[in-house]
Amino acid sequence: DTGVSQDPRHKITKRGQNVTFRCDPISEHNRLYWYRQTLGQGPEFLTYFQNEAQLEKSRLLSDRFSAERPKGSFSTLEIQRTEQGDSAMYLCASMRGGFGQETQYFGPGTRLLVL
Amino acid sequence: DAKTTQPNSMESNEEEPVHLPCNHSTISGTDYIHWYRQLPSQGPEYVIHGLTSNVNNRMASLAIAEDRKSSTLILHRATLRDAAVYYCILRDEMKTSYDKVIFGPGTSLSVIP
């Protein structure tokens, strides 16, 4: 257990439905990252936060995706009008700061299946 | 951003040492070399990191080439629990406000009993 939790661990939904995932980082960590991972691939960067500010968004993050981190604590990732191509593992990671020596702590992931 | 290249897969016999290579020929002077591994159905976990000198911890050793253009993660005695995908990534000490932390495909390590 790294101290980063994600909820739910698994989600099955029908195409067109909206889904929301939650990530609770380690409490003193001000950086929070979201990644998407499909089978056989490394984690693909989606977005990251420094406290409550969203500093970077990948081109992978279409208009259907939105992420928030209110008050710089937990974060949510919402996918609207899900598509079958959204099926993947969604990983959250937190980090104490942005310096090169800092390491990321990953949650267990949320596995999404869109039918 | 500097990139890394790793072999897609490697095999090792149980209880033998494993050397996992990583090339990073465009590394900058302020890039730290980080290694993570991902066990099946889990999120990645930190293994080790270094800047210039070789590093040891309870999980592994990191050997960094003198020119820093390559590094090697060393597992001293592979166990079946070490079967995982190993990722080598670079993180720039100076880019504190622009730090996407990009993962490549990594090396899938198989351990043979």
Oligomer: heterodimer
Main beta sheet of chain B, described?
5 strands, mixed
Helical percentage of chain B: under 10%
Number of helices of chain A: 0
As a whole number of angstroms, the C-alpha radius of gyration of chain B is: 14 Å
Structural class of chain B: mainly beta
Global structural class of chain A: mainly beta
Average predicted local confidence, pLDDT of chain B: 90
Largest interface: A-B, 31 and 30 residues
Question: Care to count the β-strands of chain A?
Answer: 11
Would you spell out the secondary-structure blueprint of this structure?
The complex is a heterodimer of chains A (115) and B (113).
Chain A: E1 5-7, E2 10-13, E3 19-24, E4 31-37, E5 44-50, E6 53-57, E7 65-68, E8 75-79, E9 88-95, E10 105-106, E11 110-114
Parallel strand pairs in A: 2-11
Antiparallel strand pairs in A: 1-3, 3-8, 4-5, 4-9, 5-6, 7-8, 9-10, 9-11
Chain B: E1 9-13, E2 18-23, E3 31-38, E4 45-50, E5 55-56, E6 61-64, E7 70-75, E8 84-92, E9 107-112
Parallel strand pairs in B: 1-9
Antiparallel strand pairs in B: 2-7, 3-4, 3-8, 5-6, 6-7, 8-9
